[in-house]
Specification:
This protein has 174 residues and is an all-alpha fold.
Length: 174
């Protein structure tokens, strides 16, 4: 029987090289890098002289500037806003990526200024409110509001977009 050959256990050099390849290939946070390294250690095992220390490696990468959680938070929040997601959904994604509260707060400030634009992108993508082909019946309206809420938008903002007539030009201030 020929089985798939398992990769050898990791040592310090292999773990560092694996981490370097990961940060070179993906925009990542310290928390996401730690999750990746811990998963690889579980999968492949450890064969180093000293105990594995992915925390120290991640700290070193932050020190060297290979990882910037604040920059990652701003980049990720802007990308999610362009896809139409609201502040709550962005905050959940940043929390899951292991971003600290102060870095999430900076991204939240950015999202607050982009909330209207994000809602516009979401409504356009889902063909709701002013982008709908026809007015929604009450059941469709509730589903549309629920979709806005799942996307992380505030209830008042969701109602404003969903209740807009097809073709209506919505103004941000009113």
């Amino acid at each position: 029987m020929t089985g798939k050959r398992l990769p050898p256990p990791l040592d310090e050099s292999a773990l560092r090289d694996m981490a370097l390849r990961h940060v070179a290939r993906f925009a990542t946070s310290r928390g996401k890098l730690l999750a990746y390294l811990n998963r690889k250690l579980r999968e492949r095992g450890w064969d180093g002289e000293r105990p594995a220390d992915p925390d120290a490696l991640a700290d070193r990468f932050v020190e060297l500037g290979y990882i910037d959680d604040a920059g990652y938070a701003l980049m990720k929040s802007a990308a999610l806003a362009r896809r139409g997601y609201g502040a709550r959904r962005v905050d959940e994604a940043l929390r899951a990526a292991g971003i600290a509260e102060d870095d999430r707060q900076r991204a939240h400030t950015q999202m607050a200024s982009d909330a209207w634009s994000a809602a516009d992108h979401f409504a356009r993508r889902k063909r709701l409110g002013p982008y709908a082909p026809q007015p929604l019946d009450p059941r469709q309206r509730e589903k549309a509001i629920a979709a806005f809420l799942r996307a992380g938008h505030a209830y008042a903002l969701a109602r404003r977009w969903v209740d807009a007539a097809p073709g209506e030009d919505l103004a941000e201030d009113g």
